[in-house]
Design brief:
Elements (H helix, E strand, L loop, with lengths): L2 E5 L2 E4 L4 E8 L6 E8 L6 E7 L5 E3 L7 E6 L4 E6 L8 E9 L16 E2 L3 E6 L1
Parallel strand pairs: 2-11
Antiparallel strand pairs: 1-3, 3-8, 4-5, 4-9, 5-6, 7-8, 9-10, 9-11
């Protein structure tokens, strides 16, 4: 059974940092790409960054480039999202998702319909 379990969300002041974790199980990590998505009330679910489980290629949305860093530990089947310089507009539920096929690019890997498996999400709230 495929499982993606997010943790690390919470309340933080603007300018602060949080680190989200995603524990993946039930599939071959290296055959997939893992992405972080976020959704705030009334908004669509947007891709934030994603990472290839094969070669570690990453892609970021413009809204978080330079502030967020995605990384993975293939030995532990873990993916992390380090979020720095947080802004109130980063407030959202953050989801971890897995896509079969590890190839990602600037044009592929940040759309929610590309992903096959989803976690339950973790709330991130940034107070201004």
């Amino acid at each position: 059974e495929v499982q993606l379990v997010e943790s690390g969300g919470g309340l933080v002041q603007a300018g602060g940092s949080l680190r989200l974790s995603c524990a993946a199980s039930g599939f071959i990590f290296e055959n997939h790409a893992i992405g972080w998505f976020r959704q705030s009330p009334g908004s669509e679910r947007d891709g934030v960054p994603s990472i290839s489980g094969d070669d570690g290629t990453t892609v970021y949305s413009d809204s978080v480039k330079g502030r967020f860093t995605i990384s993975s530990d293939n030995a532990k089947n873990m993916v992390y999202l380090q979020m720095n310089s947080l802004k109130s507009e980063d407030t959202a539920v953050y989801y971890c998702a897995a896509m079969f096929g590890p190839e990602i690019s600037d044009e592929y890997g940040l759309k929610d319909y590309e992903y096959d498996y989803w976690g339950q999400g973790t709330q991130v709230t940034v107070s201004s």
